[in-house]
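Re: the request from the purification team.
They wanted to know what the chain is likely to look like in 3D before they choose a buffer screen. I agreed to run a prediction and write the result into the notebook, where they can find it.
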Amino acid sequence: MRRTGIVLAALVTLFPLVDGGARLVGLAPYVEGTPRFGYSAALAPWIGLSLLISTILYAIPRTTVLGAILVTGYLGGAAASQVRVGDPWFLFPVFLGVVAWAGLWCRSDRIREVLPLVS
């Protein structure tokens, strides 16, 4: 189960690292897409930085719970932004958030004690 959690966490970590990094360095598709969701293109690097910091915290075992909370918050905002503009991909960030917590649940005995999903 721990290996499954590590694989899920790696998959969840990969996407936000790429997305956050692309926004931070100013890759055109990411920066140009930001106004489509109602945010200034000037905010793209800050949005990317917040995602990178949250994802790095999620990837570090000692801060993984804090990172999961922050990544989930970011993904909730992303889903809300997509719903607001009628983007049909709004379920992707929701799915990513669920997988993030599933990975954490599989990796951590402490999380399984707090969230006993199976008897």
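For the purification team: The helical segments are 2-25, 28-33, 44-59, 64-85, 91-107, 109-114.
Please add any questions underneath this entry.
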